[in-house]
Amino acid sequence: IFFFLPGLGFCYSIIQGPTNATVLAGSEARFNCTVSLDWVILIWLSNGSPVLTVTSAQGPVLGPSDRFTSQNYTSSNGFTLELIIHNTQLSDSGKIECSIQQFGESRFAFLSVQVNGSLFIKNSTLTVKENQTVEIVCEALGWAPAPDITWMANDSFIDKSSYVTQESQGSNGLHNALSILTLTPTDTEILTCLADIEALPNPQNATVAVIFDNSSI
């Protein structure tokens, strides 16, 4: 949607553009664009396609999807328009741009939408004998991007040389990871597999209790 308003002899500008954001799929993403007080029309674009037009006279003009809405705030030095993307999807990732069409001025930022998948270790407990080497398998399914996998024994991180992680991508564009920890326990301990992506406030985790049995056979 483009507007042409004849007779606009004054000039106004974008004071501050949006900043990059990383969010989990299904949550909200918010972007601010602050313009001078004499603004008339601002258009928000997602990956080059207009998703919301806001006019000073009428406010938001309905765009192609009701997932895109707007709020605004006035201060002494400018007018801030906030784009809210509801129920974010992987396809929303990319360039978010606020544009003042009449003067060809725009500012942009990037949105990264990430997916928090599942994480599990098949066995919740495992009993081992003295000098027995075991492999613990942790599986992460349906993530975007592929998660960073680490392991802990009780409350200490395990050296990365003790495990191998393989990643694969499914036909749906989501990522899977399989991490295999190899160790020879000498005591009972709690092993924790952690999967992390930037949008998660805390890593997701799965645990297994390894019971050390030193009784004679």
Automatic annotation (TrEMBL):
Pfam family, one: I-set
InterPro entries named in the record: Ig-like_dom, Ig-like_dom_sf, Ig-like_fold, Ig_I-set, Ig_sub
Ig-like domain boundaries: 6-116, 117-209
Protein name, entry field: IGSF5 protein
GO-annotated cellular components: bicellular tight junction; cell surface
Source taxon at top rank: Eukaryota
One GO BP: cell-cell adhesion
